[in-house]
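Continuing from yesterday's entry. The apo prediction looked reasonable, so today I'm repeating it with S-adenosylmethionine included to see how the binding region is handled. Same sequence as before; SMILES copied from the compound registry.
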Amino acid sequence: MSIRKMPRQKKLISDPQQMLFMEEAITVKSFYPARSKGQEIEEKFKDIIHEELKLGSLVSYVGNKSIPFLRIYRYKEAFAFNFVKDFLRRFEAGPDDYIFDPFSGLGTTMFTSMLDGIPSAGIDKLPIAYFISKTLPMLLLLKENELKEMWKTLLPRIEKNVPVDVAMDVPIMEIAFDEETFLRLRKLKSTIDDLSTSYRDIFLLLFFSILEECSFTSKDGQFLRLKRNKKTSDPIDAMSRKVAQVEEDIRRIKILFPRPSINEETMPDVYLGDTRDLSDIKFKKRPTIIITSPPYANRYDYTRSYSLELCFHFVKNFEELKAIRFGILRSHIESKIQKGEVPPHPVIKDVVEILNRKKLNNPKIPSMITTYFIDMQKVIKEWFKVLAPGARVAMVVDNVRFEGELIPVDLVLSEMAEGVGFEVKEIVIARYKGNSSQQMRKYGKVPVRESIVIWER
Ligand SMILES: C[S@@+](CC[C@H](N)C(=O)[O-])C[C@H]1O[C@@H](n2cnc3c(N)ncnc32)[C@H](O)[C@@H]1O
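Holo prediction written out below.
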């Protein structure tokens, strides 16, 4: 298996906003203090950093909005189907490969590999992500009208059903729904719970996919945002629309992918697990390619964004929700730092020291940055252990900036990867992003890179 050389793309920027970012990107190094570790690492990797801004639209979920089945459940941290397609092509992946996404989320990597006839595996620590990525491939096994007919038989049962219990001691559950909608959702859920396993999982997936539109919440920020004036959907209408979407996708997929090779071999192997410790995972064989994106060091807390789903099905109470919160990668502000834990890389040490001297809007930021890189170092070591020799890694990462301090996450992780034995092949800049509007006002429009790091084992 050989690596196809990636074409280096020159700057081709038509979007004026992007152009503005670009001009400022050129001066970005001056935002590091003179001869800082940040500047040194930029210098070290500069010859293998290049732009491919056409990838910018593919590193987000938006590209999945037109893809059958992947559009059903909005997992907004996902990357696009065509991003995975592109990297499978670049790595010349075939049926002998074993594709691995160690932060599998919605399962975009596995779903795309499956449609390409390539076996794959994925791991996620968040139960809802694990559930969705395990269930999505099952939609491909449905026959036309099968779901619609099943839904018709469920409809008359819903009102009569006893509402399910949910984790009511989680504060958001008190305010996320109006009373009538909430009761209806709980009855609908209990009707679905009574089904046999495979139908139950498919209907549960649809149920989770309507919760946001039936609630006063919106997954559009770092947390689940409450929008009290939001127009909400009726659960039964919303479910009926989802059933219709799935039926439409069953027909569309036959046109878009006339001969998908879906069989036992290509059905993804999905695990609920922690990629910081892969010792218990029984891989069918050693993975040859990783296509992934980790949580970003940007304070997003998945257990908040997906708390409605978690509270409806995966946790019984607040304690269980918190156990998940403190069990995932420490990329969010409530992450706990252990005594004796220190920044594991000179760039991070520098930034943490500078931030510790500043007045921060959240004093926990330096700890979060420290724990993020400690965890990611563990992750990279685990990948090196499990991957086949010669395996390639393509990982999308976002650089971050706190109080004006830039963290070149792409380069720091790449240097860590070198430290355990990977060869860093390329750093591909997919897009430049502004920072939070607050930071923009204070420090100007300094763009931060969202890159794809490419390593070889
Ligand atoms: C950026 S998302 C990945 C999205 C994925 N590429 C997709 O297309 O859906 C990062 C994922 O990492 C998961 N995660 C967080 N901590 C983890 C851990 N310790 N082990 C495995 N997965 C973890 C999160 O639950 C989230 O689904």
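Comparison notes:
- Residues 1-66+344-457 form one domain.
- DSSP finds 17 helices and twelve strands in the chain.
Will overlay with the apo model tomorrow.
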